[in-house]
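Summary: Need help interpreting a holo structure output

Steps to reproduce:
1. Submit the protein chain below together with the SMILES for nicotinamide-adenine-dinucleotide.
2. Request a joint structure prediction with the ligand placed.
3. Inspect the structure token block that comes back.

Expected: a single structure record containing both the chain and the bound molecule.
Actual: see attached output.

Input attached:
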Amino acid sequence: MRTIDLRGRALSRDALLKLVPRAAVSAEVAVERVRPLVADVAERGEAALRDQARDFDGVTGHRLRVPAESIAAALETCPPEVEAALRALIARLRQGSAAQVPEERVTHLTDGAVIRQRWQPVGRVGLYAPGGKAAYPSSVVMNAVAAQTAGVPALALASPAQADNAGLPHPAVLWAAALCGITEVYAIGGAGAIAAFAHGVPEIGLEAVDVVTGPGNVFVAAAKRVVSGLVGIDSEAGTTEILVIADGSAHPAFVAADLISQAEHDEAAASVLVTDSEEFALRVEQEVASRAASTRHAERVAEALSGPQSAIVLVDDLRTAALVSNAYGPEHLEIQTRDDEGVLRDITDAGAIFLGGYTPVSLGDYLAGSNHVLPTGGTARFASGLGAHTFLRPQQIIRYERDALRELERPLRALAEAEGLPAHADAVTARFEAGKEGL
Ligand SMILES: NC(=O)c1ccc[n+]([C@@H]2O[C@H](COP(=O)([O-])OP(=O)(O)OC[C@H]3O[C@@H](n4cnc5c(N)ncnc54)[C@H](O)[C@@H]3O)[C@@H](O)[C@H]2O)c1
Ligand SMILES: N[C@H](CO)Cc1c[nH]c[nH+]1
Ligand SMILES: [Zn+2]
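--- attached output ---
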């Protein structure tokens, strides 16, 4: 990992972001690459999906809609320990997600003037679980439990077809689908899946959805940006990032293991350490060097950690570390310092925040009870992680009685006249003209 020494330097946000750039394929470049793929699915439907499966997943002649029997049959091949772990994940995430459903609130402004705020779930959602370099049953659960907690009535799932599973999605994805009770599953990957959800593909019985969610690589994230507006999306949950703020009190082996764990996802993954201790930085570097080569995906990890998107950043103090982290807006932020809560107070922008030496990101990836589908690429500045709230729309319901409306007749007319829209005021006055009593 390269080291960037910021000690004694005060940098603007833009200058910081130039020093620690995002992944090689920028969101803008990826958007231009996937735009024709999305348009092709909108135009040619199934035929376009088949071409993309051949080109990107190496699969031809498969069934795009997974038969219900294949989902049920797959669960029989799930090792008991994995099934128990998936059930534990579902149960813990249900608990964690329940807090994301706001209560209906009623506000009485004056006598007879009431506003209610209710949270209405969307009707139909398309959930994406990645399946390129690895299979993501955990992402199936993260999507499904959030949607089910919100009360969404119709859920469809897509994940890439696998050449070595007869063109079905990865078996582990089907295990998770079965355990979550999802019956509508498609073997479709990448931008094609996102486009299929957004536009619908009647030939295969896929009806367009209202909201598309789920994580994926840079092309999946870009496709979500392209279809957003036509459908709702969660965040652009793209290529994984971890930023660790640590001081000399942290354990170098813990921090190194966490940086490596997220680099395992993708050659383009970003692992960043920000520390005020040069000695600690060196020890982490040594730990990374001694551990990285023995991981299963050593080549991918090495590429991610040696890329420009990964770095060790030396700063003067932890307040500056928080400023650097805020400028970056990481998907995952770990804080391992003498005063984690103090550092947390300075943090504004991050997808999810993991405090202390015993809360690794990989816990959040699987079993913490929090959701692992999180904003990347700096979008944590304005977006949140996936949750039940992603599928809920606040709706205001307004009811005024006669006297409460009458009280507002004059000020309302003043505002309507100020805007040059007097018929708005007339609509109120009409209710108080003689003979118009009594609704
Ligand atoms: N932010 C989050 O919440 C989060 C959570 C989990 C995983 N992730 C990320 O998800 C990603 C998973 O990626 P993956 O590749 O394993 O699976 P994936 O399912 O996201 O991507 C595979 C698909 O990418 C498409 N694709 C591949 N090469 C392409 C190209 N050159 N042009 C256009 N499309 C192409 C294909 O359609 C293929 O089916 C990783 O980057 C990981 O870091 C993010
Ligand atoms: N770290 C990923 C989010 O970027 C989530 C994940 C799923 N499985 C393992 N990890
Ligand atoms: Zn992970």
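--- end attachment ---

Reviewer comment: Residues 136, 138-139, 240, 262, 331, 365, 372 surround L-histidinol (ligand 2) (CB under 6 Å). The first helix runs from residue 13 to 19.
Status: needs-info
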